[in-house]
Amino acid sequence: MASARKPVIVRKFSRDWCAGYAGPELGRDGAELEILDLTGKVIRMAWEQVKWVCYIRDFPTASTDSANPERLLRKRFAIRPRTPGLWMRLTLTDGDEIEGLAANDISLVDGAGLMLTPPDTRSNTQRIFVPHKAIQSLEVLSLIGAPGRRQPPVPREVEPELFPADGD
Q1: How far apart are CA 155 and CA 93, in angstroms?
Q2: pLDDT > 60? residue 126
Q3: Of 88, 124, 91, 121, which is closest to residue 103 (Cα–Cα)?
């Protein structure tokens, strides 16, 4: 059974970051972000301070780069994505741009922000939550639809023969 809390890295606009565990209620109209840091202390911060929250595979160690703990190297898609969803480009309030795929459902307007799938899903970052207050502008680049279901072939009606071969 999966844990209720997921490992995250929270990047602030002040360029510092903190690592911890986010609960399943992240982004559901909460007044502030609440995470449990690695020492077991609950940290609360206002959404105005948060640039993004990255759901990660593993926490950075002392040997990894502390300047980029999310290991988010690519912020744009090199080619058109194939996964269904809305291909979006977000400009954040600090001028940083990021692209991602968002689900084409009510979660776009509901809650405290957007959940995106980053361009490089093989990196440490699996999903990115961007608070609405961090977004300066948003551009929908494309709607990528799910592969369409093939319609079953319509049975053709048997045409009557014009010149029947009766044997007369």
Answers
A1: 57
A2: yes
A3: 88
Nearest CA among 79, 27, 74, 67 for reference residue 50? 27
Domain membership flag for residue 129: yes
Partners of 19 in beta bridges? 9
What pTM does this model have?
0.80
Q: What pLDDT is recorded for position 1?
A: 38
Task: Give the three-state DSSP class for 47.
Answer: helix
108 token code pair: 């776009």
Place of tokens 């209720």: 4
Residue 126 has a CB neighbour count (10 Å cut-off) of 15
What are the beta bridge partners of residue 36?
A: 21, 42
Asked if residue 31 belongs to a domain, the reply is yes
- Residue 150 included in any domain: no
The predicted-structure confidence for 23-67, as pLDDT tens digits, reads as follows 887 777 677 888 999 898 999 998 899 999 999 988 877 666 677
